[in-house]
């Protein structure tokens, strides 16, 4: 993920929802889980040190 916030906004705009997060995993990055309009849940990650 280049920018987790932009990705989460895009999910919401497309009719999906954020079901968890974002949460920070120290030294790893930020993690969130999203659900699409069909109920599929996936994780999205922005690794530490990446803009």
SSE order and pairing:
Layout: H1 4-13, E1 17-25, E2 29-35, E3 41-47
Antiparallel strand pairs: 1-2, 2-3
**CATH topology title:** 2,3-Dihydroxybiphenyl 1,2-Dioxygenase, domain 1
CATH superfamily: 2,3-Dihydroxybiphenyl 1,2-Dioxygenase, domain 1
Q: Report the sheet with the most strands, covering strand number, pairing sense and barrel closure.
A: 3 strands, antiparallel
Count the helices. How many?
1
Task: State the CATH class.
Answer: Alpha Beta
Percent of residues in helical segments? Answer: 10-25%
Question: DSSP strand (E) fraction?
Answer: over 45%
Q: Structural class of the helix and strand makeup?
A: alpha+beta
Mean pLDDT: 92
- What is the terminal-to-terminal distance? 9 Å
Low-confidence stretches: none
CATH architecture: Roll
Radius of gyration: 11 Å
Q: Count the strands?
A: 3
How many discrete domains? 1
Q: Biggest sheet: strands side by side, in what order?
A: 1-2-3
From the spread of the alpha carbons, the general shape counts as: elongated
| Topology as a string of helices (H) and strands (E) | HEEE
